Amino acid sequence: xxxxxxxxxxxxxxxxxxxxxxxxxxxxxxxxxxxxxxxxxxxxxxxxxxxxxxxxxxxxxxxxxxxxxxxxxxxxxxxxxxxxxxxxxxxxxxxxxxxxxxxxxxxxxxxxxxxxxxxxxxxxxxxxxxxxxxxxxxxxxxxxxxxxxxxxxxxxxxxxxxxxxxxxxxxxxxxxxxxxxxxxxxxxxxxx
Length: 192
Hints:
Layout: H1 2-29, H2 32-39, H3 43-50, H4 53-60, H5 78-91, H6 97-108, H7 110-128, H8 138-158, H9 162-166, H10 169-185
Helix pairs in contact: 1-2, 1-4, 1-6, 2-3, 3-4, 5-10, 6-7, 7-8, 8-10
């Protein structure tokens, strides 16, 4: 029992140090040695528990977007509910530094970009699945919704574009919701 408890404490210390280091340095510049030093352990322990820097990053950015069940409620308000949830996920009660860490790291590193694709691709697609009548359209619709959600995140929380930052949550949601709604259940023009 003591060994398991010590092992859990070591894992927690490594993850806490990794999250801080990835937030400060990004994926590319963060090193296993620096993370181990921050956690007060030998670098071999990081490798023992997580196998690689990619494995550690995946564990440190294991993010649940906590997407609501979008099938509940009026179909014409899905875009608004999703937009509001996402904005509040970034800055409300559900906010956490891990989204920022993941997003900032994804801009400069392929491993982080792949992780961001996994998080958004899997979770947004899963949330929209029951709402999209044509399964062949699901990947495109989920991808387009993600472009809006990630674009707002980039401009408001990372680049801090003044007009976007200045909007209150209700105004931001009101501007974002119609586009998200159209991507979910509006017509998809054919590529020309």
